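Quick start: what a row looks like.
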Amino acid sequence: MMVIDDFFNEEDFAAILAATDRARNTPEIPACEHREEVDHVGFENSKFWMLDMAAPLTVNELVKRGYFTSLTNEKQMMVRYHVTTSPYASLWHRDRMADWNGNVVDYIGLTLFLNDWDSNNGGLYIYKDEKGSDTGRFVAPKRNRFIFNPLDYWHGVTQIRNLDVQRHSLQMFISSRNLIK
């Protein structure tokens, strides 16, 4: 698990924020496309949009930092913009499309936090090494903080408890075939 603060330069981060502002003026992802994910709960006050424009910026930064080779097929990456509020949470899960209990990591999950956050509101990114482990770690959301999960650790999000706050993030899924190991 890698946590990288100030992942994007200010210009690229501002472009992503502008794109999220534009996205909020468009229809969100239909309910059936994300609310059927059994590992996510408490969707009733949350909204989700596809944000394809963030993919090239993210890929370019990951390639520049030496984590990935160039992705030539846009279907190898998906980006969703999440605005989550109480009572949203996610249960322990993996981001791969392959069998969660197997050893094949076909897709890698990445998270970019878009706003500063008070950890007392919940919404912490939690992860652990093994499915059956009863100990783990957490990452507090922070503006322009990037989480890169190349080993597809079991992870989740603690429940957001405050009805008056919104947690803004990008959730990205990239094919592992271009990962530099």
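That is the whole record. DSSP finds three helices and eleven strands in the chain. The chain has a mean pLDDT of 87.
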